[in-house]
Each structure stands twice: as C-alpha cells, then as structure tokens.
Task: structure prediction
Amino acid sequence: MFRLLLIAFFALFFAPTYSLSAATTPHPQASGDPKGYNIKLKVLGGIADTTCLLAYHYGHQIFVQDTFRVDKKGICTFKGDTALVGGIYLAVLPGSKYFEFLVDNNEQHFSMEANPADFVGTLKVTDSPTNTLFNDYQRFLKERQPILNTLVKELAQLDSTKADSTAKNKVRNQIKPLEEEIKQYRLNFVQKHPNNLLSAIFRTMQEPEVPESPKGADGKPIDPDFNYKYFKAHFWDKVDLTDERLVRTPLLYGKINTYLEKLTYKIPDSIFISADLIIDKAKPNKEVFKYALSFITHYYETAKIMGMDAVFVHLAERYYLPGDAYWMDQKRMDKVRERVTKLKPNLIGAVAPNIRVLNVANNQPTTLHQGAKGDYTILLFCEPQLRALQKNNAAGHRPLQQI
Result:
C-alpha cells in the first residue's frame, strides 16, 4: 500500500496536466491575516501579456482563486487583501502549463521565477523558505522518478505474465532501496522542520508499520486478522485532522477515501463507527470538520450499494439536525429534516409502521403486526372495487401463498 501512495505523490507533483473544467468556481475563503498575500511570479521563456490563474486543491478537486495579468515583462503578481489558507496552490498558464507551490500561513509575501519548460529545474524562490525546501524535494524526486517508474512498470508487467519469482524479486530488490531513500528523506525532513507545511504533508502520507503478529505456542498467529486490525487502528496516528492546510491538498481526500473504501466493511454499523471517528477528530477545526462531514455525506449519498441511506440518516441526526453544520442555511436544513423523516421508517431492518386495516376474512379491524405471523409478510395494495382484481384475486393469491 505504501507504494500506491508513493506513486500517487509522484503524480501529484509531476503529472503533465490538470483538468480545471470540473471545478473552476472559487471556493469560499476562510478568514486569514488582514495583511493579505502578495506573491510575485516572473515567467521566463517568452510568456508575456497574457493571463495566469491562481488555483488551489480542495480535496480531489481544483478551484480557481482568481485570475491575474502577466505583463509584457512576464511578471504576474498574485495579490489579495485576505491571507490565503495554507495548502498546495497552482500557477496555471496558457497551454495547460502550470506548476505547484506551497502557501503557508506565515509565508504569504514572496517571489518566484521559473521557466515553464522546466519549472522544477529552473525555479528560484525569494523570501519563502518553505518553497525553497519544497523545490529541493521536487528536484530530489525528479532524479529518482524515471528510475522508479520504470521499475514499477516492469514489475507490473512481470505480474501480468506470471513470471517466476526470481525475476520479480530482482526488480523488487531494486525498488526497495529507492523507496527507503525517499522514506528516509521525508523522516529526516520532519525531524528538522516539524512545523513546516511540507512536514504535515509527509506525516499525512505515512502509513502504519505493522509489527509481527503475536503467535501462539504452535507458532501460528493468534489472530489471523492482526495485520488488518493494527493497520486500521493506527491509520490516523500521524495525521493531524485539525490542520486545515491539509484540506487544500489532495492528501486528506486520499486518506479518508482509503479508510472508508479499503478499511471499512460496507455495512451501515461499521460505516457509522469509521465516519464518526474521522468527523469527531476533525471537529476542533471548523474547516476540516466541514470538509470531512460534507465529503462523507456525499460519498454515501451517491453510493451504489443498497442500504447506504442509513448512513445519511445517522450523519443527519448526529451532526446536521443538532446544528453542528454551521454552513447550512435554514432552507437546506429543512430539506435534510424532511428527508430524514421520510427515510428513517423505511430503512433496511427497520420495523414497518403498524398499519391498521380491515380484515376482509372476518370484517374485523386488525393491524399489520397482529397479522404478521410468518417469517415474511407481503402487503398487496389494491382497489377492491376493480373487477379485474376481484376476478383474479383468488388466482393471484395462490402464488403468494407458495412464496
């Protein structure tokens, strides 16, 4: 699983293009330092007299913060009266050319110079230690990325052709030191710069290292699910879910998605526990809480697995209806309340409403619960005056008895 996140991180900083068509509406900005931000970008390589977008990650989407002008000298100044929320931002130039940089809460006034032909290799940063360190890391990765990508592709090809273990182990032994080198770089960085945004990113990328499973007297694991349980129990150990800077990176989305999709059984009771764990950890920070609750609600509202409406009801009753969702206006809250009222009695496993009807056999009033004697109860709703139903009632009843 580490390798999957590693590759995802390479894609984050080296993918050739990003699609902005899915999300180009500026996201509401959190309040920040009244001094605002002032980021000067000098674009080399002949790009001038055009526009440049300042964009940012918000979970798995990208939003445009604002549009700025590149003057005849290739200089563009990103400027605003309110400080930016820390995170990973993008300078997007015409022709799908872009590069990523970091904005931290205490570094909002700095300058950069780069050539779009090689942003990483030509970048020069002034007055932003965070971006200088980030560029050092990008250059470090850039030297190793082609080698690692080639080896990973080679291993995948060997797996698909069912090659012998000797050939696959040879490739794995080449991958392992590269992974270890990158891992050590990150660990050393976090030790030296514990409060840096890049350290928060590195910590979020870390996965639990599962110790050897405890064994019984017979030498066999005491718990065959030990690895899964340990990994899940320690999945959030290094992640600060109160750090709102992580919302403006793709990493928090990836972590939540992995936890829900890969580590949580797809039954409502298990999902309740996982969802509450994430949301409650995020609750001390209103922006992370908003993101976590909104994302998880949408995740299960749009799930294609039957019974997930129970998750919506649970989240609504635990967070929305008590008033914790501060961003919801009255109109939207009324819709949530109405939907819960309609869904809750009809959830899978819920006791059906005790309908009171007239028993046509003895012309006496009865209730659904009184009449439900078997393992299953089938309700047939019809208009008794319809001749077709009167004529076919007996014939239609026999198949139901057989069921």
